[in-house]
Amino acid sequence: MNSFKKKTNRLSSRKSSALTLTGNITIDTALERHSHVEEGAQAVSSQISLFMQKVRELSDTSGTLTQAMKNYYSGSGAEDKLRVFDRAHEEVDRTIPNTLLGVAKDHIMSKLDAYTKSLDNVRQEIKVFHERQKTFDHYLKKVEKLNEEKSRRATEGKLEKPKQIEKMTRNVKKLNDARGARDEMVSSLLSQLNYFYETRISTMDPILKLLFQFQQEYYRQCATAIQVDLPTANVPV
Known about the structure:
single chain, mainly alpha, Substrate Binding Domain Of Dnak, Chain:A, Domain 2, 5 helices, AH/BAR_dom_sf, THO complex subunit 2
């Protein structure tokens, strides 16, 4: 299995995490936009890998076809045709794809890998943020419940016991700590999300250009290699 096929399988098997929203319009908008950018980048990377894989498969199939034709013409006295055919396909089946796919891996895929890796890093930041949001929500609900119980006791004319006071104080502190831990990430996370959204086109432009150059060069070289005439020698009876 070649490296492009491995890359394609890895990307296609990776599932995007479900988008979790927070209820904060600013944060949720940034998260939704980033999710769109991330899914788009993964799709581009997967399809470029698949395209490169198909180029390799095409060259391999063409090489197999060339060998089949050589076998068919063997001993016929018309091998000159196949020598010309074989020389052209040596370029098309081996030299051109080997050279250009190596260039594509070094330049196109390396840029895509760096880009998707940076998106993965932000994904981890988002994960941490949601974990902190979850902790905050947990203690918010807990404190709300404790306040409801406190109000009910007050309505019944009951005084707060030291243990109840300590429990409320402890959970309010945990709530405030959770709020602080979550809020300290907001500014940095929003900056990252907005950056990747605002630079999504300028980041992909060089990759698009390199991909188009690869396609132009690949098809041009293949077309040049096979622009030869086959000999018209007669086959002996």
